[in-house]
Amino acid sequence: MKTPSRYIDLTTDYGFKRVFGTDVNKDLLIDFLNELFQGKKVIKDLTYNKNEQQGDTAEQGLVIFDLTCTSEDDSQFIIEVQRSKQNHFKERTIYYGSKLISDQAPKGGVNGWNYAITEVYVIAIMDGFHFSDSKEYLHDICLFNQKTGQKFYDRLAFIYIELLNFNKPETVLESDLDKWLFVLKNMARLDKLPTFLKKPVFQKLFQIAEYSNLNKGEKQMYDVSLKRKWDEYAVREYWETEGMQKGIEKGIEKGIEKGIEKGMQKGIQETQRKNALNMLSLGLSLEIISKSVDLPIDEIKKLCSL
Hints:
- Helices cover 44% and strands 15% of the residues.
- It has helices at residues 13-20, 26-37, 89-102, 176-186, 200-208, 216-250, 253-281, 286-293, 297-304, and strands at 46-48, 52-54, 62-64, 67-71, 76-82, 120-126, 138-144, 151-162.
- Helix 7 (253-281) runs antiparallel to helix 8.
- It is globular, with a radius of gyration of 21 Å.
């Protein structure tokens, strides 16, 4: 494996959760979210929730989020990092938001509920693929009246960030949101804290994200997470070039999309299993492996018996 950069990649599973997913670092997530909402909403404090939610039926099993948290006014947030293009990605995020809303309904036949639901926001950070045909990098979505253009309901909202479309160089970064997006996209390429980021929140971010500050176990977890990202990129690059070229030659336009999707999924699943086996050989716990490679503990137990 090649020598890692000075700072960890924030779009890896481990990198994102290390920086944004712990109580001691929640000030970083609060600052990022407040810059994202640009005054439309002000978050003063957050409580992290478990990232596993039970499905509505036994057959549905668990729904696993990257991060989920609740603010001091009971607003709920799901923050997802997505690196590979998926069919029905929009539908998945809508399902996630709807899941948090439906879970607010009283259970056990309680009478008299007035449907006073709290705010729910789904924030998706997309790295490595285009979400839409637009060149915009920030998509702020809520329910609105198509005839008048007025907001109908903004307490269920979706914010999609396309990092591929964020191409601002250092010299034209205007807001702290610009700086956050620049860091999310470019931190792993930097070798020092830039002068334009010398604000306490970014100074703390760079200190936490320095690879040399990780202990041995943390470095192993990050290395596995980084390799997984590289593997996903390699699978995507192969199917977008070799697979697509073969499909074009055969003139099977519909087969291209299905072949790419099936090949990417198969490649990602195989990479997950290989990474889990590697981590098992290092003696890491089932819980840590499950969070790092995004596989259920039961499936990892099956790998133990191979």
